[in-house]
Amino acid sequence: MPYLLVLLSGASLTFAFAPFSAWPVTFLAVAVAVRQLLRTPGKGFLCGWLFGLGWFGAGISWVHVSIADFGGLPLIASVGAMALLCAYLSIYPALAFYFTKRFFPSRLWPLAMPFFWMLLEWVRSWMLSGFPWLSLGYSQIDSPLNGWLPVIGETGVTALVILLASAVAVLPLFQRWPALVAIYFIAFSSGWAVNQYNWVVRDKQYQVAMVQGNIQQSLRWVPEHDEPTMQKYQNLTAPLWDADLILWPEAAVPKLENLATPFLTDLNEQAVEHNTALITGIVNFNWESSEAWNNLIVLGKKHRSDEFGDYSYFHNNRYSKHHLLPIGEFVPFEDLLRPLAPLFDLPMSSFSRGGYQQTNLIANGIYLAPAICFEIAFPHQVAANLHENTDMILTVSNDAWFGHSHGPAQHLEIARMRAKEFGRPVLRATNNGITAFIDFRGNITSRLPQFEAGSLRSPVITTRGFTPYRYWGDYAVVMLTSMLALIALYLKRRAS
């Protein structure tokens, strides 16, 4: 029964994240798992692993949609691949549980567990290129704790969640009810109070428009559909030329850049004629070096005072994706894996990396820090490209891989987190949803429904200044959790 409860508690975490967003579930789910950690024999690795298996098995089940629909694997193989991924990700909470139970008595778990959890989540964010999806702090984007996000970031709020949840599991066993009530009151009331303060100041307002083409994934790289796709985006853009900035999603232009130059040149001229700029995703390929890049390029005016368009083939007002998605954009051990199944030989799965830090895109005088698709889940990379004159964060994506699952809603939730952490508005343009405007406080101001072709226009207020998290990064939470762990170690030695 304890093992079953811990598995179910992990699975219940799905309801804490978007699209359900029932943030109190996080505290209950983790508290149940920690309480079962007390009851299960051994050092806790199996308990933590089962918790992770439920957490990721239910939470990222959308990965199976892409494997099953586009991977070309039989059902048993696609389920097996999904199970293998979840089993791997479950190792991290398993180790956090193991180290906590192995080295500390239960009464000190609320002090020790945040350190181990934070350490293992940090490893998960970079190991095997990193997969920091569904970190617990994301579930708190709408809770009273969200006031702490500009100060300690999602990482810090995750550590705070672990402290609060483990306290609820452990302190009642020692009749520490006053301490438990005090901890929760301080955490939530201080989060609410900090949220009343604006760390950045409002600056300028721009009219921005985004286009959602809703192109089926099965047709995106079919040559016969290149022209209809580009014409569709042009038609949807026609009423938007009076905006200060127009955005198309990831790889919206389905031709390689050098083959689409006449089309891009025409768009460049149209944008200048209407006194604006357009940013689109496109794939570029260098025939001499055989390198390909997943790019964002600026068409039209670079600066508001320009009289001519900025675009030319291979111009430097572009961004090349750095953090590539395993299997989808690069294949490790490709000589071995590519022949095995279509999953390992998808179109556009051999990209080269752009630099970790790149100059901002400049479009009609607006400075944008880009993040393509998966990159928005990596706050350190986003922070590396945020400068004092950065006006907005731009993220583009194609979530058509994941169908009618909750993956796109979780992706949008991650974008909201970056806006709240860094105090910058986020523009999210996608192929089939969810295209949305997010203000600097992480609130969605307008959005398009999924699986519909359309356009969206909204005023966007830029900001100046930096949040504490932009200055400190994760150093603050590392120091705080380390201090708590040292206090726990001192109390343990004093008791012994």
TrEMBL record:
EC number: 2.3.1.269
Domain of life of the source: Bacteria
Matching InterPro entries: Apolipo_AcylTrfase, C-N_Hydrolase, C-N_Hydrolase_sf, LNT_N
Pathway as given in its UniProt record: Protein modification; lipoprotein biosynthesis (N-acyl transfer)
Domain CN hydrolase: start-end pairs: 211-462
EC supergroup of this enzyme: transferase
One record GO biological process: lipoprotein biosynthetic process
Subcellular location: Cell membrane
Molecular function (Gene Ontology), one example: N-acyltransferase activity
Pfam family of the protein (one): LNT_N
Keywords: Acyltransferase, Cell membrane, Lipoprotein, Membrane, Transferase, Transmembrane, Transmembrane helix
Protein's recorded name: Apolipoprotein N-acyltransferase
Organism: Alteromonas pelagimontana
Organism phylogeny: Bacteria, Pseudomonadati, Pseudomonadota, Gammaproteobacteria, Alteromonadales
